[in-house]
Amino acid sequence: MNIPTQSDKAGLYVHIPFCVRKCPYCDFYSTTDLSLKSRFLKALFAEMEMVSAEGLCFDTLYIGGGTPSVFEYDNVSQIVAAAHHHFDFQPFSEITIEVNPGTVSIEQLMGYQESGINRINIGVQSFDQKNLDFLGRIHTATEARNAMTHARRAGFKNIGLDLIYGLPDHSQTDWLEDLKQAVECDPTHLSCYMLTYEDGTPAYCDLQAGRIQALADDNVRRLFETTITYLQDHGYTQYEISNFARVGKDGKPQVSQHNLKYWTLVPYVGLGPSAHSFVEAQRCWNVSNVDDYIASIESGRMPIAEKERLSGGQQLIEAIYLGLRMTAGIDLIGFKAKYGLDFTKVFKEVLSDLEGQHYIEVKNNRCALTLQGRALLDSITSMFIEQDVFDAEAKS
Fold first, then answer.
1. Beta strands in 218-281 (DSSP E)
2. Is 162 domain-assigned?
3. How far is 92 from 114, CA to CA, in rounded Å?
4. pTM of the shown model
5. Of 75, 204, 351, 362, which alpha carbon lies 20 to 30 A from 92's?
6. In a domain? residue 281
7. Has residue 186 been placed in a domain?
8. Domain shared by 240 and 324, yes or no
9. Which regions of 241-384 does DSSP assign to beta strands (E)?
10. Which residues of 24-38 are buried (b: 16+ CB within 10 A; e: fewer)?
11. In the Cβ-directed half-sphere of 213, how many Cα atoms lie within 13 Å?
12. pLDDT single digits (tens) 124-175
């Protein structure tokens, strides 16, 4: 498999905290109070002026949410222009916007394209209306297909689709039909996420109250493995646990260059309510409330909620967990150069056990999970974390 190209340039993320309606499964911060859009934009532009990104050069901009497509193209164009004004961007940077099929028009998409956006990510989630109803989506299956058609007509060549699997009573036949329709849309990128019930969401409350039942773990694992084999058979390379990219004319998978930064510990700066930043082993995140965010900036204060500096042990844990999320696995030579540890010696017993069960493979100076191992990512990662190499602070 071709290893995705990784850039050491930083990424800029802008969180748009608005939705027409909150989806019951989603725990990303957003509000349905669209009357705050104008004040939010002013605050966002002010935050760009306040943030220090000295020494960082950027090659990706990702406008996510929430639902960024609640904004018309002129506002989005202002965001893109302001980002380029305040931050040092490389030529030909990847600029992505997330859109909801229920809130985006051909006119908006054409405007987004003219503003310099060159990648669209469409939150389809499913082509089955009953699944869309369960997920609380505001769009129909027809609107999902139309959004793809409109994106192409608007001139976008780099198009991603999001899908969700593992709903209650989700059968393999149902999921294969979703995958089939997604592939027929011919996107360059597919993100296939397992439905999770996050604490505090309406879906979690329904689960706890017994109003819905989660799909059995074995069934979810089968759907996960079905996803990999089906998409691989149809020209999509899995490069991260939930992400698949079609191979381009240059022979390389057309990955999300921005999201790749999160998984490879490359610096990124986040703007907007709840947005996270990571620079030189320090992570910070903004307040998760648009009113507090606006109030903080209007009073001249940075809207940061908390900061943390990762210890050496914590950095090791993240490097292992994120490295194993990537199908290319952990670069053993790079790991030793960065952390001063010989991975195969330090974790000899764990690796022997996992290799014996065919969950992990070590070859060509890389350590990667097998197809069977990818379905057990969290439990396998915990086997490494339990070793004595990590300091007490990292375990706490």
1. 236-240, 243-246, 268-271, 276-279
2. yes
3. 14
4. 0.94
5. 75
6. no
7. yes
8. no
9. 243-246, 268-271, 276-279, 282-286, 304-309, 330-331, 360-363, 366-369
10. bbbeebbbeeeebbe
11. 6
12. 999 999 999 999 999 999 999 999 999 999 999 999 999 999 999 999 999 9
